[in-house]
Design a protein that fits this description.
about 500 residues; alpha/beta; Rossmann fold; N-(1-d-carboxylethyl)-l-norvaline Dehydrogenase, domain 2; 2 domains; eight-stranded mixed beta sheet; three-stranded mixed beta sheet; about 45% helix; about 15% strand
């Protein structure tokens, strides 16, 4: 079977949208992995189809080993599968993505010169990146004499300086790394390198006045490339071509870009009717994602596991567990969020579809990793803010807190090097994995009664950065909920708050 490229695609009988070769390169993208190809490149591809934006992206391989050869062998083409659930209905879509022009390895001397040529071109409008959380890091050892400079921010500094010297307009940078204020953190590193390298005040003014560094919030689960050989072969057979770059993402996707209102008119996404939004700041939307999407996971899965469930999707089909999650979100989390209530409710409703994805067997035990820090970041703030705003304790969040304690203390069997071993009612042992100090704490309390354990958990300032026994009524409420779970089982305890 022939490898996917423009000619092979035509011969396969493909009749869908095609963005032709030779389209101007308007995006220089740092990163060629699964996420960017299922997210950023997808949005630009949709903009080409819906609005005639007429642009492609040149990809920069961030490390010495990567996908450059595979991408170029396929002339930038690959098949993207978007799978999941929408409004309770199974969705399985695919499209060939045409928005990638080529990929370049900056550690190849010829490719580095080609990257520089793209950086100073008249067509270039945007740069985008997802270099992982470790990518936006200031490295004082980087110099402009390195070809290329070692770190990602140093490469950006060098390329923007070349664009400045060529007297070309500033660009808009769309940072997708999973850190707070990703765009502004990158900008700070660029300005530090500019100082280190003596690039001068005029260049720094170009960075601050002519270029726009946008912090963004990305949201799409991307399981990635198909690694099952038999499945891959079946997909290739159905397509009529061999594709080494098949990518899979969930059907849900949203992108929030922090920037001025006029940026929304410049970007092609709003005109295309896509779920991409320019907002004054992304922080409230990150808070919404953490509190609703991540908070739902951490809030219900530990008790659900004790109740006998193993994967998230099955929880969505159980009236009690699903009802408990909805009570937590709609009655206790959404009322305290600083965003439009209807938008938050729509986002929360989409959570059910996302958790009900028929293509992903999301294991509850994988979500349970490091639950102490997750509970502190995702659910505890909602519990405290609800209590302060309404003057009463939130029932579902308190029960979820008790379920967290129950999961870490349920019939403990032994302490291993990297885990505590518990046993659930079904009789199977399970591994509790967290920071060593947290595991040591629960092992030391393995024989404690509910009231003693809850008091010692809530008063542990290493866990919560505060003494939670000072929250009126919380200690008694969580202790009663923990006794309910231990006496009647987690599912009955969840049902008791509905």
């Amino acid at each position: 079977m022939a490898k996917l490229n423009y000619e092979v695609l035509k011969e396969s009988g493909y009749t869908g949208f095609v963005q032709p070769k030779g389209t101007p390169v308007k995006v220089l993208q740092f990163g060629e992995g699964n996420f960017l190809r299922a997210f950023v490149d997808y949005w630009f591809d949709m903009a080409n189809e819906k609005t005639g934006w007429n642009g492609k992206a040149a990809l920069v391989q961030p490390i010495a080993q990567g996908l450059t050869r595979f991408i170029n062998d396929q002339e930038g083409l690959y098949t993207l599968y978007l799978r999941g659930s929408e409004n309770g209905e199974k969705v399985d879509r695919k499209r060939v993505i045409f928005s990638v022009d080529a990929c370049y390895n900056p550690y190849d001397a010829d490719d580095w010169q080609k990257i520089i040529a793209i950086a100073v071109s008249d067509d270039l409008e945007y740069m985008a990146s997802n270099t992982t959380e470790a990518g936006i890091t200031y490295d004082p050892s980087c110099t402009p004499d390195q070809q290329p400079p070692t770190s990602f921010p140093a490469k950006v500094t060098y390329l923007l300086h070349e664009r400045f010297l060529a007297k070309k307009p500033g660009i808009t940078f769309l940072s997708c790394e999973l850190i707070d204020n990703n765009g502004q953190e990158l900008k700070k590193d660029v300005l530090r390198h500019a100082d280190d390298w003596g690039y001068g005040e005029e260049f720094k003014k170009y960075i601050t006045d002519d270029c726009l560094f946008c912090s963004t919030l990305v949201d799409r689960i991307v399981p990635g490339r198909v690694r099952d050989a038999e499945m891959a072969a079946e997909m290739d057979k159905a397509n009529g071509y061999e594709d080494d770059l098949k990518d899979i993402g969930e059907v849900f996707g949203v992108w929030y870009i922090e920037g001025p209102a006029e940026l929304e008119e410049k970007l092609p996404f709003r005109k295309a009717g896509l779920n991409v939004h320019v907002v004054p700041e992304v922080a409230p939307y990150k808070k919404r994602k953490v509190r609703i999407l991540n908070g739902a996971h951490t809030g219900f899965v530990l008790g659900a596991y004790l109740a006998g469930f193993d994967i998230v999707r099955d929880c969505m089909h159980d009236e009690t567990v699903h009802g408990f999650m909805n009570k937590l979100l709609f009655d206790e989390v959404i009322p305290i969020l600083p965003l439009d209530k209807k938008d938050c409710e729509n986002f929360a409703a989409a959570v059910t579809d996302r958790f009900n994805n028929p293509f992903v067997d999301h294991q509850l035990m994988s979500i349970s990793l490091n639950s102490t820090s997750k509970w502190k970041a995702r659910d505890l703030p909602s519990l405290l803010e609800y209590t302060e705003k309404f003057g009463q304790l939130p029932e579902a969040l308190c029960m979820g807190f008790a379920a967290y304690i129950a999961f870490f203390s349920n019939d403990l069997q032994r302490r291993e090097a990297d885990a505590l071993i518990g046993k659930r009612a079904a009789g199977n042992e399970y591994r509790i994995q967290d920071d060593d100090w947290a595991l040591d704490f629960y092992w030391a309390h393995k024989d404690a009664d509910a009231k003693t354990l809850v008091h010692d958990v809530l008063s542990n300032e290493q866990m919560w950065d505060q003494d939670l026994t000072k929250v009126a009524g919380l200690e008694d409420k969580v202790a009663a909920d923990l006794e309910n779970i231990r006496d009647n089982g987690a599912k009955a305890a969840y049902k008791s708050v509905l």
